[in-house]
């Protein structure tokens, strides 16, 4: 016996809820792993982590305030345009009422009209009714329109004042946050210098790079374990079918390619470094589920997107994060803004593609390679 359409919908909804709970549980496991990993960091690494997270938070706050400022400026332009329109309308109506007043003088109605038009406040509206017997319906309508225009002008003027005040407040807030961002960047540079000094003093640069690489490998393995069996990618296009057709996550030259050596020639690059100005938008190369968006030793501010079937894309060394763990993203969605992605603090993005934990050459997958 076939299940009813309603029963099938209930089954789909229950399955979706189950998948959502499974993904949430997997992300919680990943975050728990990160907490344990962070507890093993040195003091210098912890300070670097705090500085880079502070930069990310401040950059997001600045982006939000800048968006509010742009909206307020647009509103200000519209209000000023409306004010100009109403002022022209008021002038036209005033000229018309001048003609009515002259006509009233001729007909002997000028005394009443003078009383009626002597004030512009709301109380004057009531006085119009008192003189309705003298003025024609046309005259009353014109006066009512004139007073409505005056009221609208007053309302627009109040809105303008409030918008200008809000704009000034937001600009002050932006200036303060920009100063805080500069301070956070200085603290990052100091923390990075202290970390390098700490490594140099112990003569363990290669060992530290190996630890950083192992940390990333361990995170990838934890994500694979946590996401195993989750079928929520059924509606995501097949990642493998996009081989050679993926858009680059960032526009810029490739500063370092897959398999190139670093760490004095002892280690091989598992991804690529794409050069770009700090703050450039970093975009998802394929639809998927954000499973990690945090700071990781050796990778800085890192975003990892799971695309299903064992495929993941990694975006490291960012300046600020826009996506959160648990977000569904489409190809082209902004995940972060780029920071210092290469060796020697060169501006750009560190990018990897993995399948079942194994690093793949992005040149085989990206269009502009």
Structure description:
- The chain has 369 residues and is of the alpha+beta class.
- The chain folds into 2 domains: 19-202, Helix Hairpins, CATH 1.10.287; 204-369, Glucose Permease (Domain IIA) (Distorted Sandwich).
- It contains 6 helices and 12 strands.
- The strands form 2 sheets. Strands 1, 4, 5, 6, 7, 8, 9, 10, 11 and 12 form a 10-stranded antiparallel beta sheet that branches. It has a two-stranded antiparallel sheet with strand order 2-3.
- Helix 1 (5-38) runs antiparallel to helix 6, helix 2 packs antiparallel against helix 3 (110-117) and helix 2 (43-107) runs antiparallel to helix 5.
- The model is unreliable at 1-9 and 120-134 (pLDDT under 50).
Which key terms come to mind for this protein?
17% strand; elongated; 10-stranded antiparallel beta sheet; Glucose Permease (Domain IIA); 12 strands; 6 helices; 369 residues; 55% helix; two-stranded antiparallel sheet; Helix Hairpins
CATH class of the largest domain: Mainly Alpha
Largest sheet: 10 strands, antiparallel
Oligomer: single chain
User: How many E strands?
Assistant: 12
Note poorly predicted spans: 1-9, 120-134
Q: Would you identify the CATH architecture of the largest domain?
A: Orthogonal Bundle
State the helical fraction.
55-70%
Number of domains: 2
β-strand percent reads: 15-25%
Mean pLDDT: 74
Q: What is the alpha-carbon Rg in Å?
A: 32 Å
What is the molecular shape? elongated
Number of helices: 6
Order of helices and strands: HHHHHHEEEEEEEEEEEE
Supply the helix-strand structural class: alpha+beta
Task: Report how far apart the termini are.
Answer: 54 Å
CATH domain topology of the largest domain: Helix Hairpins
